[in-house]
Amino acid sequence: MDVETQEITDQAPRQPGAGRQFAKYGLDVLVLLAMCALLFYGASWQFVTNSSDAAKYECYVVAFWQGNEALKELPSGQCNFILHPSSAILTNQAVAQRLQHADLPEFIVSFVVSQAPEQALHALPHEYPLLVLIPFSLGALAPAGWYQIAFAAWMALLAISIYILLLRFRSRRAAIAFAIYLVAGAWSTGLGRFDLVPSLLTLGALLFAIRKRWNWAFVLLALATLTKFYPLVLLLPFLLAQQMEMSGKWYGWQRWRPLALFVGLCILVMGISLLLSVEGTLGPLSYFGNRPIQVESLLASLLWLISAVKHHPLEFAYTFGSLNVLSTYSTLIGLFGSVLNIAGLLYTFWLQWRGKINLVQSCLLTLLVVMLTGKVFSPQYLIWVAPLVAYVGESDLRWLISWTVLSLLTTFIYPYIYYMTDNLLKVPYIAWFFPTTAVRNFLLLGVVLCLLLYYGRNKPAITLASAGNRRSLMGQKK
């Protein structure tokens, strides 16, 4: 009898508790279901085409694990960008010739020649570092013909993970804002591309950094960089925040261990990549260095305005996997973008150094400046900053309205304007294209300038320990 009474007593509070849990997280479940459903619907048109980004990822996976010869088993035309590239890329033979001309030992030249991409484990992506093959390979776990759907399912799990992290470590308002931004700005790209991978890793690195777990923060930042190069620009904000928080001698191992972990992990992975393919490791560096101005960037909008004023025609070409603009003013505008980039980043780092912004705000501004002043602005770039915008802005209407409008304009540009014609080279001639991209880009410029001015007026909020560390780094006596 006592046992039965005890069982009833133990079980009684569980039902109301379960009800409270459902009431507590029911809204989150509904938001996640709506987010995933909309993202799947937005990406669904890509599941039946062999020219989507996910289809290219499948080519990279097959080429790496089986060699380029196996690409012929995939649908015709799907992997032509590897088998018959339209842009000049660094080849295995070119690397070997350069090494030979540099009079390097013959065994090094022979080693590079032996890394033929026709063999398994020697064909690396031309655009991305080695670790990207891990998320690419996840889609290959599905049965043949289901790669793109399986890849989208994995990306949906990552989007859910970001939502849960924001919910757990920031607020429900931030999590819901992230869902809104992701659907509004990455409706067709969120599940069709892999940018949620570095975005999740970067958010994880920031959450560890906020809790002063610097070793893990720098490890995750290194993994994000080794997946897609853009998180590398966040190394200085991370290092600056970490150094300002640390105490002790400036040359102490404890102070520099997180950076050593970052550098060591990058060297390790890049070393493995070089052993597999020197050409595949160096290829992405030359790939991005030679890219012209892409038509959706702010620099392209400036070229469009110049052409309208001076009646100077623009030329367009599809190279490096994107639609690019060519003009006699391209070099000048590119230089102007570089100056803006350096000035924006230096001012951002100065704001962080002065304690006017925290690490998350510094990382967000750094990414926004790079996106705004770079030669390329692709739709998936919004995925990089969506978690950070949500973390900083939460439910602030100024953030919600401005970033949702900016995101919707990006979605209107791609895929809607892009698919108003069957000829990609005719996209810039569509009446809506350049006016819409210019409005989006100048809106982003306005957001960045407002943030820089707003944070510049903030009073420094530096702890005594941080101030002391800053003085010690400058070589002054405490």
Secondary structure elements and pairings:
Blueprint: H1 2-11, H2 14-43, H3 53-66, H4 80-83, H5 92-101, H6 106-113, H7 133-138, H8 147-169, H9 172-185, H10 196-210, H11 214-227, H12 235-245, H13 253-276, H14 278-289, E1 293-294, H15 298-310, E2 315-319, E3 322-326, H16 330-353, H17 359-373, H18 381-393, H19 397-417, H20 433-456, H21 464-473
Fraction of residues in helices?
Answer: 55-70%
Number of helices: 21
Order of helices and strands: HHHHHHHHHHHHHHEHEEHHHHHH
Shape: globular
Give the percentage of residues in beta strands.
Answer: under 5%
Overall structural class, as computed from helix and strand content, comes to mainly alpha
- CA radius of gyration is 25 Å
Main sheet: strands, sense, barrel: 3 strands, antiparallel
- Given as residue ranges, the uncertain stretches (5+ residues, pLDDT < 50) are 1-15, 462-468, 472-478
Task: Count the beta strands.
Answer: 3
What is the count of structural domains?
Answer: 1
Q: What is the rounded distance between the termini?
A: 72 Å
Let me know the average pLDDT. 89
Write out the strand line-up for the largest beta sheet, numbering strands in chain order.
Answer: 1-3-2
Keywords: Cell membrane, Membrane, Transferase, Transmembrane, Transmembrane helix
GO molecular function: hexosyltransferase activity
Subcellular location: Cell membrane
Protein name: DUF2029 domain-containing protein
